[in-house]
Amino acid sequence: MEVKKALYILQEIAPYLEETPMSVWSRDLPQGIKERGAEVRAFMPKYGFINERRNQLHEVFRLTGMNIIIDDTDHPLIMKTASLPPSRISVFFIFNDDYFISVGRDKEIKEPPKELETAMFADNNHERSIFFVRSVIEALRKQRWSPDVIQCSGWISALAPLYMRELFPDDPSFRDAKIVYELWDDCLDQPLNDRLGALLVQDGINIQAVSDIMDQPVDYLALSRLAMRYSDAIVQCSDTVQPELLQLAQESGLPLLPYTGEEGRIEAMAQFYESL
């Protein structure tokens, strides 16, 4: 497959967050794919401690103002954007006062790190994930942008394959895209609320699609199993992925790119795209 347009739905990206294996990979991969000639866009949450002035975030007014309904409650979407240095890739930040810490533009960064912010929202992390994924989907539909490949990184992006394939199978924004899901260490410290399945059904997802997560807490293994079920390919991004998770990936029958280490990983990923 020739990749002319690539979309990355990401949990974290350096330099907006501290450097971690995930945030560095989420920066380097989009840049590497853009250098190979593709048009690239990325989405990530706008965590409260991200300094808007220093990172030159600007509100995207044509995408701001949409309401995402979760559990019969309207949650307004605020969309901001910045250019990822040095490649100038457009990064779109998803924000809502109900799900992320609200910080003024001129406030110094004194907020807790991302992991602590996630812990503070532990009781509604399931809603945060739904809000984030649905916001990305609605933004793409409004932009009328159709990527060739969509890559999902981190627990907060794991519902994207399910939504795209179950609710929007014929939408031109996703219909012909290959969805790639990344496997990481267990990056979800606390299982998602046991109401996740019920909220997905309320959103229009077929109950059979989420029968194995209904009425029970959803850990990273269960969330990733669900994501892989609706993906087209899998990438192992860490050498310490849970053995049970790696076994599920190997048994899925999907194309799987094993962990390659840091050297040559961008080229390996580009070749993996071509093989899809």
Main attributes of the structure:
alpha/beta; 19% strand; two-stranded antiparallel ribbon; 9-stranded mixed sheet; Rossmann fold; globular; 8 helices; 276 residues
Mean pLDDT: 91
CATH class: Alpha Beta
Shape: globular
Instruction: List SSEs in N-to-C order.
Output: EHEEEEEEHHEHEHHEHEH
What is the CA-based Rg, rounded? 17 Å
Into which percentage range does the β-strand content fall? 15-25%
- The helix tally amounts to 8
Largest sheet: 9 strands, mixed
The CA-CA distance between the termini, in Å, is: 6 Å
Tell me the CATH superfamily.
Answer: Glycogen Phosphorylase B
* CATH third-level topology: Rossmann fold
Task: Going across the biggest sheet, name each strand in turn.
Answer: 3-6-7-2-1-8-9-10-11
Which stretches are poorly predicted, pLDDT < 50 over at least 5 residues? 105-109
Explain the overall architecture:
With 276 residues, the chain is of the alpha/beta class. It has helices spanning 21-35, 114-120, 125-143, 160-166, 196-202, 220-229, 243-251, 265-275, and strands at residues 5-9, 39-45, 58-59, 67-70, 73-76, 78-84, 89-95, 149-152, 178-183, 233-236, 256-257. It has a single domain (5-275), classed as Glycogen Phosphorylase B (Rossmann fold, 3-Layer(aba) Sandwich), CATH 3.40.50.2000. Helices cover 31% and strands 19% of the residues.
